[in-house]
Fold this sequence. Notes:
7 helices
Amino acid sequence: MILKTNRNYLTFAVLLLILVLGRTVPHPPNVTPLIGLMVFSSQVLKGSSFFWIPMLAMFVSDLFINNYIYSGYYTDFQILTPGFIWIYSPFILFAFLTKTKLFRSINFPKVLALSLSGSTIFFLLSNFGVWISSGMYTLNLQGLVHCYALAIPFYSNSIIGDVFYSTSLYFAYKFSTDISAAGLKKI
C-alpha cells in the first residue's frame, strides 16, 4: 500500500512538473502539454484527480506566467487573467469528454481522436472569447470569421503539441506497464 501511495505522489509531482515546465519554458505558441496530460491522467488517475491535477498545474503555471513573465502588463499581482474563463473553460469541457463511455478504455486511435478534439475545443472556445471580449474584432459574423482565420496558425501549433504530448505520454505509459507486466511474469 505504501508503494502505491508513493507512486501516486510521484505521478502527481511528475505531472505537475511536466505541465508547469511545459508552459513556462520558451516554446512555440500553444504547444503545451495540458491536453496530453489530461488524456493521460483520465486513464491513469482515479476519482476526480484526473481533472484537478492538470488544472492545478495550469493555475500554478499561470501565476508564474502572469506575475513574472508578463508582469510588465499588470500593475498588481494577478491571480487570474481577465480572460481566464475563455482559457479554462475549454479544458474543463475537454476533461469531461475524456470521461465519456467512448473513452473509458484507451488505444492509439482514441488518443489521436482526443488530441484533435482537445485542440479543436480550445480553438473554438478561446477564440470565440477573443472575438466577443477583446474589442479587436467587429461583433458580427465577419468579425468572428476574421478572428478564427487569424488564429489558424495557433490552432496548427495546438494540434502539433497536443498530438505530440498525448502520444508521447501514451506510449511511455504503455511501455512502462508492458515492462512491469513482463517483469512480474518472471517472478
